[in-house]
Amino acid sequence: MKKSVNESKIPARTVERLAMYRRLLSGMLESGCETIFSHELASFANNTAPQVRRDLMAIGFSGRPRCGYRVGEMLACIERVLGGGFGRRIALFGVGNLGRALLSHFAYQRGLTVVAAFDTDESKLGRVISGCRCYHLDDLPERVSVDGISLGIIAVPGSAAQDVADAAAAAGIRGLLNFAPVPLRVDQSVFLEHIDITAALEKVAYFASSK
Amino acid sequence: MKKSVNESKIPARTVERLAMYRRLLSGMLESGCETIFSHELASFANNTAPQVRRDLMAIGFSGRPRCGYRVGEMLACIERVLGGGFGRRIALFGVGNLGRALLSHFAYQRGLTVVAAFDTDESKLGRVISGCRCYHLDDLPERVSVDGISLGIIAVPGSAAQDVADAAAAAGIRGLLNFAPVPLRVDQSVFLEHIDITAALEKVAYFASSK
DNA sequence: TAATGTGAAGACGTTCACAGCC
DNA sequence: GGCTGTGAACGTCTTCACATTA
Fold this sequence. Notes:
Two copies of one chain form a homodimer.
Chain A lengths: L11 H19 L4 E2 L1 H7 L4 H10 L10 E2 H12 L6 E5 L3 H11 L5 E7 L8 E2 L2 E5 L3 H8 L3 E4 L3 H13 L4 E4 L12 E4 L2 H13 L2
Parallel strand pairs in A: 3-4, 3-7, 4-6, 7-8, 8-9
Antiparallel strand pairs in A: 1-2, 5-6
Helix pairs in contact in A: 1-4, 2-3
Chain A binds a DNA duplex through helix 1 and helix 3.
């Protein structure tokens, strides 16, 4: 066995789609919708009915033929799976425009909570933005233990990103989402996801041209 | 044949990595580095040597055994492939924190140019941010034809995203990069890429827990 | 010998097709 | 009949192994 992993590992793409289903389903529940068919959810999520059923199969959730799936139960099941990890308390690194956008994006979101923001710009220290207090990067180790932070979002300029990643890893953070336009080197024990905005746009440009 | 596509289509993931290689290679070229081995580029890009060679194979670029690849030639080849589409002039929708972050991100980038920003907030109209002028969304059709815009980035709140996508499609935009937290419906003729920030973080949380 | 180029295998993800069950 | 659940086929992406080349 190569890595030590939890049993019943869910495919990466499925995890991403489950997060989207969750958003859609909470909206539906508020609208009073109680059941949904796989083809309906698929149409809301821009994918196919078999894909939805596969995803639900992966988390062991069942519906009933002719009746579809119960929205409330599906939502609860997805939250049990996605929320099942140890930590969902997040540090944000970099309080520029992107950082502030992310703070407001996650401000009223359940489950994933940004509990502290970090910057090296003196003028930002102590400020509270979207309900989140800013600290100096040097305070990270303290906040990690006090606030129980286990994940981080990197929204600093590329030139600072590797240093931040190193500091985060040293402080015991277990997962990082990187928005900086540089590939980061992190230890095996840290899960790293890179959102490469330029690459994404480059992809759009390339495939939009071949249509 | 299901879709009408350009010949010699490059795999999606490869296109994304090529964009990253380009960034890395321009940096190297400025540092005076003339040749590079696949395993070196792989190490900078956080992937493997065979992966790099496959990617280069996809664009028909060759190196020489023992000598590696010529950095300048590789860069030129990548730019020929990525820049080969019809249009790389971009509209930004939404001039909030995220929009401004994206404007500065693309401000001094070659190839992909954000030539106009759109918002419905009166206070932003006419302003120039990171060298890009803000217009009302109603002016989109005019700017598309005047400025030759073919791609769009959606950075508006979820509640406005579908309307913006519809306006963009109606104005003749061929590719969209969506940052809003809602799946969008667009015509087959428009290439759509969704960057789902919540889903990405949810994925980090999930896989960081199982390490 | 130390690198590239590439067929073949393997892992992963999606779609199909249909059995089974309200 | 109309929907779910799922084995099997299919397609895409990554890795391996090694022939090839300077």
